[in-house]
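Standup notes
- DV: blocked on the single-chain target, sequence here:
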Amino acid sequence: MDKEKIKPFFTGTYNGELKGYGAVDLPKKFQSVMGKAGIEQLFLEIPESFDDWEEGILVSSAEALRNEIQSEETPLRRKAEILKLASSPQSVYFGRMNIPKDLREKAGLGKNITFTAMGERFVIEDKAKAKIKNAEAEADPQSLLK
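- DV (later): unblocked, structure below
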């Protein structure tokens, strides 16, 4: 009898390290969620259709992308972006995946990175940039609403 898969839901913020060749070990909590949800591939992007996106690399499961594309609230520009993204999944082996060089450079990732959960998705960003962004948000919480 097959185990019933759960809907993926990531929580927490974790630090990690990006290897020189782009490999990254996912946080154990994220690996656990992925295992229970049967996720073996992730989709990495810097969403061009999101205005003012400065968060780093958005990481989604196929289910999260499917839910977004099926939503009537998702703009056509974003749906086209998702369809293009769907052709390039990144496989996860034993909790490790590779981040392509072009994405690492575009996101400005250094050696030290932060994983920030966003429910069905998570973000990978440079740790120093995340620290500055979080300090600014704490100093001016209203800026988050802009």
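- Follow-up: The domain at 13-145 is CATH 3.40.1550.20 (Chemotaxis protein chec).
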